[in-house]
From TrEMBL:
PANTHER family listed in its UniProt record: D-MALATE DEHYDROGENASE [DECARBOXYLATING]
Keyword field: Amino-acid biosynthesis, Branched-chain amino acid biosynthesis, Cytoplasm, Leucine biosynthesis, Magnesium, Manganese, Metal-binding, NAD, Oxidoreductase
Essential cofactor(s): Mn(2+); Mg(2+)
InterPro entries membership: ICDH/IPMDH, IsoCit/isopropylmalate_DH_CS, IsoPropMal-DH-like_dom, LeuB_actb
PROSITE patterns found in the cross-reference section: IDH_IMDH (PS00470)
The keyword Oxidoreductase is annotated on this UniProt entry: yes
Family: Belongs to the isocitrate and isopropylmalate dehydrogenases family. LeuB type 2 subfamily.
List of residues binding Mg(2+): 218, 242, 246
Protein name from the UniProt record: 3-isopropylmalate dehydrogenase
Amino acid sequence: SRTLRLAVIPGDGIGREVTAEGLKALNAALPADTKLDTVDYDLGAGRWHRTGETLPDSVLEELRQADAILLGAIGDPTVPSGVLERGLLLKLRFAFDHHVNLRPSRLYPGVASPLAAPGDIDFVVVREGTEGPYVGNGGSLRTGTPHEVATEVSLNTAFGIERVVRDAYRRAQARPRKHLTLVHKNNVLVHAGHLWKNIFDRVGQEYPEVTTDYLHVDAATIFMVTNPARFDVIVTDNLFGDILTDLAAAISGGIGLAASGNINPSGDFPSMFEPVHGSAPDIAGTGKADPTAAVLSVALLLEHLGLAEQATRIHDAVAADIAQRSAAGPRTTSQIGDALAERVAG
Ligand code: IPM
Ligand code: MN
């Protein structure tokens, strides 16, 4: 038998509500010989207001011991923008070297897409997670004057690009269509853009079965709306990936369904799974939040831990539930969570 040590960071707003439902699905999915050992961590706006802390080193050390982390949502309008994002969420992604930010998009049958002709949407964005403009390499000069200058330098290393590109090729190779698209903006961002493209082409020689193409990010947004079915796996930098995956969520049922994994493929650090949506303070506590994205994030967690069959059971449960959602009428967060867990249990 095996014990899964799971650190849970419910966070703010609806984070607490949706992680509770994610855990129900996880409990229902786990094999009988696997014991779930969860520890809750009080991090987010509440802790910051009480203590001024975002992520103390002692907590980071404890989290490091976990097999995986399940995160709800971070952020609250009462906390200045950037404090929790940089001090907690990005700190975790950087400290645990989550260089593969995995964001699948699938249009489940029965889900209304805002697109008139969505086609068969089933792609995954491999967003680089530890570099690009997210590294905090910037500064301000002449602050507060009319001549203020701000820089936010995008950091791109051959090492960092190659490892995420390689991961994306591996994922493309394992999928039926075996297609990989690089998204960047190398007609303008020539330094970073060409480094990405050169590495993409070089690594591609090791994957002769994977077909590839390249799109500038602006063109990629057009295709994502006019013909999203063309995409299979997309690999892109941290900021382009952030923007593109919100669009990807919007065309495939909304952020209520969008799951993500912040993955450290080497296993040197725990990977972290979280819905793409935020803390939605406007609906927190009303039972209106859709826990499906959190539940699908649990499926990504299971897949990462090598429990592919259990992950499939969650996907099947979500597909079956979604197929009869309009017939089911309005349900609360926990009613949806219970229905999903029940289907997972079988
Ligand atoms: C996301 C979020 C984060 C990001 C923010 C909250 C730091 O938008 O997970 O997509 O930009 O990565
Ligand atoms: Mn985002």
